[in-house]
User: Fold this.
Amino acid sequence: MFALAAELPEQVEAAAGRASDVSVALDPAAVENVVIIGMGGSGMAGEVVSAVAAPLLPVPVVLAKSYECPAFVGAESLVFAISASGDTEETIQAASDAQAAGAHLIVVTRGGQLADLAMAWDAPLIGVPAGIPQPRAALGAMAIPPLMVLENMGLYRGGHSWIEAAVNQLKRRRDELVAAGESSCAARVAGQIGRTMALVHGGGTIGAAAAQRWKTQINENAKAPAWWSAQPELSHNEICGWGQNGDVTRQLITVVALRHDAEHPQVGRRFELVAEMMREVVADVIEIRAEGDGDLAQLFDLILIGDFVSLWLSAQSGVDPGPVPALDELKQALSGP
Assistant:
């Protein structure tokens, strides 16, 4: 899993190449909405696309993370169905409903039932490399193709240059994390979190996507509980929850604040004020600052650091980050009578 995390820059680069010439038989001017269907690690790809592209697109981007396809989907909808395995039941159901509604589908998968459906629908199919054993380790392979398709259609202008900037930053960060090993910032942060539970705060769409990724990676890699929330919303509710039980929470919770250059100035101020309020009631408040040129580069920078933090948490606890028996057991139970 460490090796797979370290390959993210090359994975992003290769994914851009695979999707560079994918076209859709839909006039860009006719697109009314973009819908991204996906669950788990595949669904995280949609979070990345929405975080960096939605603010720039002339149409709304909606994420569908369940069995249901949004009712507004129709002939003017551009729908990305993403599933690493191709057998995610929620994604298959929602994508099938989108196809029935006349939407224009693009499928991102390495095979399974979804690949068979893509061929039956004559929908563009962008492959996910077969050598990646876990969906969460294939984020670059799944998040980049939709961005390339949107750029090819003229909806996400300059996408290739932003991807190139992201690759450059990922290589710099990867080399730093690998070379430093147990002395890296990721290993140090994992040590600070230790046996406490991480509450990851992000700011705006970029920070929110990064915080969600940190949370799910700690869950799956370290097999540990974690939570996430985002500024400015958490300033309107979550902070009220720290008024009591400080004697308990200061032993259990470590806050990780993910910062980036695209924050609204008031979001930055909120981070500072909330940190001051919470230092009395949590074990620690750790701040991580993104580097890189552009939103995509900074988002992937935070993601890569978080992936390594989750892996160091697993290593420091003696936990195998690869297998996810709880997910396997649940899927098996769902497939039974």
Summary: The longest strand covers residues 77-83. The first helix runs from residue 2 to 6. The radius of gyration is 20 Å. Strands lie at 33-37, 61-64, 77-83, 104-109, 125-127, 197-203, 226-231, 253-259, 284-289.
